[in-house]
Amino acid sequence: MQNLWNDNEASNYKDDLALRVYTSRLLGQEPALVLHGGGNTSVKSTAINIFGESEELLYVKGSGWDLATIETAGFAPVKLSILKQLAKLQKLSDLDMVQTQRSAMINPSAPNPSVEAILHAIIPFKYVDHTHADAVVTITNTANGIERIQQLYGKRVLIIPYVMPGFVLAKQVYTMIQDIDWSQLEGMILLNHGVFTFADDAKTSYTNMLKLVTEAEDYLQTAIPTDNSTPVEIDLLKLAKLRKAVSTVRGCAVVTKLNTEAASFSQRQDVASIATRGPLTPDHVIRTKRIPLLVNDNIEDYVTQYNEYFARNTDGQLTCLNPAPCWAVWPSVGAVNFGRSYKEAGIIADITEHTIHAIAMAETLGGWQALSESDIFAVEYWELEQAKLNKSGSVLQGKIALVTGAASGIGKACVEVLHAQGAAVVAVDMNPAITEQFNQADILGMVCDITVAEDIQNAVDTAVRQFGGLDILISNAGTFPPSLKIADMESTTWDASMAINLTSHQRLLTACSPYLAVGIDAAVVMIASKNVPAPGPGAAAYSVAKAGQTQLARIAALELGSTGVRVNVLHPNAVFDTGIWTEEVLSKRAAHYGVTVEEYKTNNILQTEVTSKDVANLACTMVGPIFAKTTGAQIPIDGGNERVI
């Protein structure tokens, strides 16, 4: 553990809560201590109420906040006396605990206090820190974990046997600390759960946390596994089929995150046994479920086993959750993580990566031993935890899209609309700027020359490897060659237009088809042109290529329909907010027709301007549920063109 405390920086925080935010963030930025909302911190302080009276408060991390990024608004201010009174009760339901804690808050707009608020309150120190430190939990998750913790820390820590978090845990600790000498303690170890440290100053509590965890890490040095894995070629179609199967069971599209760093773990002979004993800490179960799928097993068997697990543990009053796996061990390859978004898949990947490492170390200490099935079930079906994840997604949530010609105009707008509607997107263009334009976890910008078959295949393979499959193809890339009559046309002009405006679309469709066939409600939109139904003189190279692209789409609709893939065509016209339509070009064209620029841009029946965003909105609607029963269609988006009509 690296000590990140800085005296100069800490001196800038003049009040208790500001300093609490500072040290909370120090803890939160270390993933070996807390992951994605895990852990909680608090500070006891005073405030003057509306009557001018001084009140003792516990500022405790609020539900939904992450220690790595928490702000003062993320701490719930609760009356300390009420929390201490709650600890004296013999029984307290979850609902009553939440309601009472909320009623004791002095700021009704603050988040719900942590479920560990009562426990923080009864620890008689100003600052309290709680983490789920990997090293400590790994040691406790072994057959003789208690003895190892006693050997490591002696009487410097209070060892708390595992019980359900919340009031039950607070009550158990309350009972244990009645006659305790706090001056002898550096912290508390919650078996299978985590670590508490405390002090009357923030620095000491933080330093004690690092000290205890570092000792555990040092203890595990001899248990760090070696990587004996051998590289394995990834079967991308198998990955796409796995995603399809999980999405089908879950009833919605999921994105995957592949972890090939776990190859060594997946290549172990005993992986089927050690990977299915339970999670690192019980709170992980709401993200990962109790056990993963083994990729070579039948997913129907996993579903059956999950339903049986539910039946064994339910009290008859619960509703079974979705039985789809949240992650899978892919023997020889690594681990695959599934999420409704790439962010969620990434969170699960972080958790499973830490879990895999912990399991491997625990095996060298005599064997990985997670909590019992019933204990894990209790947290998985704990309504206080389930409420954190009860969120709906956007229209295209979990979908995976590939867009060509994505650096500008219609393609760029399509990427932005797809992403806004929840899709993960691979955006390709021959312009190198694409990698800077789209450079985030769920939008991957790639340089690709769509006239080169190898570039196309690399882009498609990258999409599948990065996100797990392919559901949406917006085949948009194209070029508008110089206006030439047929009699004056050189072969290079014709050939270049055919290569970009027609042949590239065929090659792209060929490369995508195997993955679209196992996609989720897969759909293709070809961006063609008004020139298909209404060609004009001087545009033979462009019009013929676009007509060929349209015919290609019609045949693709016939051929791919049996696999559930929809293929439709858009015919835009006069979309002027693209790179080729500069102010100078627009002015010249308007002058040629004797009209203003605005009149030129709205020269259609509806007298409206058609923008790239308009085309993108329609394209993204066509790949969504509204057009679920439509294929082989050609739809103009031109404001109404007399020649087309």
Describe the 3D structure:
The protein is an alpha/beta fold and 645 residues long. The protein folds into four domains: 213 residues, Class II aldolase/adducin N-terminal domain (L-fuculose-1-phosphate Aldolase); 154 residues, L-fuculose-1-phosphate Aldolase; 203 residues, NAD(P)-binding Rossmann-like Domain (Rossmann fold, 3-Layer(aba) Sandwich), CATH 3.40.50.720; 29 residues, no CATH class. It contains 25 helices and 19 strands. Helix 6 packs across helix 15, helix 18 packs across helix 25 and helix 21 runs parallel beside helix 22. The radius of gyration is 30 Å and the shape is elongated. The mean pLDDT is 95.
Which features would summarize this protein structure in a list?
7-stranded mixed sheet; 41% helix; Rossmann fold; L-fuculose-1-phosphate Aldolase; single chain; 19 strands; 645 residues; 8-stranded mixed sheet; 4 domains; alpha/beta
Number of DSSP strands? 19
Structural class call reads alpha/beta
The DSSP helix count reads 25
The CATH class of the largest domain: Alpha Beta
- What composes the largest sheet? 8 strands, mixed
> Quick check: average pLDDT?
95
- Tell me what the CATH architecture of the largest domain is: 3-Layer(aba) Sandwich
Nearest-angstrom radius of gyration? Answer: 30 Å
The oligomeric status of these chains comes to single chain
Instruction: Estimate percent helicity.
Output: 40-55%
CATH fold naming of the largest domain: L-fuculose-1-phosphate Aldolase
Number of domains: 4
- Fraction in beta strands: 5-15%
CATH superfamily of the largest domain: Class II aldolase/adducin N-terminal domain
Weakly predicted, low-confidence segments: none
Strand order of the largest sheet: 14-15-13-12-16-17-18-19
How far from one another are the termini? Answer: 71 Å
Question: Which overall shape is indicated by the principal axes computed on the Cα atoms?
Answer: elongated
